[in-house]
Amino acid sequence: MPARVPEMFPSGGTAVQWAGFFDEVRSVSQGRWAERGVQTMRNRDTNMGLLRRGVTLVELMALVVVLGVLAGFSVPNYFKYTDTARASDTKATLGMARAAISSYHDSAAAANGSAGYPTLSQLETVGTVVPRAFPANPFNSSSDVQVATWVADTPPVFGTAGWNYDPSTGRFWANSDTDNVHENEW
After folding, report:
1. Who contacts 129 (Cβ-Cβ below 8 Å, separation ≥6)?
2. DSSP string, 89-131
3. Rounded CA gap, 91 and 186, in Å?
4. Using an 8 Å Cβ cutoff, are 134 and 162 in contact?
5. I want to staple 140 with a disulfide (CB 3.0 to 4.6 A). Which of 14, 96, 171, 176 is the partner?
């Protein structure tokens, strides 16, 4: 059955007639191509989706390379941020403890006329010197406080406690010393 070819450029038609004209031209041309065994763009796109179901090895390797580059940039930054967070947490705990010890020292001086630093048991009793229990030292995960004596310029680090306290001088420091951080010197 021969395909009907619409008349070329109908004169003076309405928009609906022109739309119908273009639909008719499109259907006739697609029909002619299909009769000859040639796929139209629309048919080819749908068939390609059915034929191609996997990922090529080159695409997979490109994905692995991109992910490797992203990981190469992000992992060092992640560890830098965790170290910064640990340092910030340690400094906050040291500031809280030192302020509480100083406040206890000043209030003892005002009340008795003689200044004194709290003992270890007073320091560890919540509400006596500090408003809450000591958090764990982020560098060694221990919240214990032990008595230590600060003798030299560098504060000592020993044992497994998280924090060191010298009741004779009121000094309080972290009981850990990480390479390149030296948090015991803060």
Report:
1. 100, 101, 104, 118, 122, 123
2. HHHHHHHHHHHHHHHHHHHHHHHHSS--PPPHHHHHSBTTTBS
3. 7
4. yes
5. 176
In whole angstroms, give the CA distance from residue 163 to residue 119. 14
Coil, strand or helix at 142:
coil
Give me the sign of the Cα torsion angle 165, 94, 151, 169. negative
Residue recorded with tokens 């030192």 = 98
DSSP SS3 for 30: helix
Does the pTM of the predicted model rise above 0.85? no
Q: pLDDT tens digit string along 118-169?
A: 888 888 888 888 888 888 888 888 888 888 888 777 778 888 888 888 888 8
Kindly state the helix (H) or strand (E) to which residue 166 belongs, with its residue range.
strand 163-166
